[in-house]
Design brief:
The protein has 5 helices and no strands. With about 140 residues, it is mainly α. α2 crosses α4 and α3 runs antiparallel to α4.
Length: about 140
């Protein structure tokens, strides 16, 4: 792959700045730990595996992998706050999407019930409209 060209953002940061090797090792260790953690979660949840997969799908739709790509390209201190903000927006959107995806059967039932109630109310309003028209003369 092609290397990212680093441009200076502040006066004290030079072009072609190499990331700190300790930071690179720390990010690599975090990646490994997250992968192992996900594996352990899937093993523990067992019967909740569909919910875990739904959560992964929701986070994928919310953009977790594009966020991770952004995190892997961090080279300056100034890149960290937008990455943290992106993480919180991905978590919020992903959890809301996952919650709706997990409750889809219940939401289908609620929407069908609302439509049925709407039909019932429309019939009552039609009868009331005729009665009011007769009353008003």
């Amino acid at each position: 792959g092609s290397a990212r060209r680093l441009e200076p953002q502040l006066a004290f940061e030079g072009a072609r700045q190499v990331p700190d090797p300790a930071f690179v090792v720390a990010v690599t260790i975090v990646r490994v730990v997250l992968s192992l953690y996900l594996g352990v979660c899937i093993l523990i949840f067992g019967s909740g595996l569909p919910n875990a997969l739904t959560t992964i799908q929701a986070l994928t739709v919310a953009g977790i992998w594009s966020w991770w790509s952004q995190v892997s390209n961090i080279a300056y201190v100034a890149d960290i706050p937008p990455a943290i903000e992106g993480l919180f927006s991905v978590i919020f959107a992903g959890s809301a999407t996952g919650y709706v995806m997990m409750l889809q059967p219940l939401i289908d039932l609620v929407v069908k019930g609302m439509l049925f109630a709407g039909l019932f109310v429309d019939k009552l309003l039609d009868l009331l409209q005729v009665a009011l028209a007769d009353w008003s003369g």
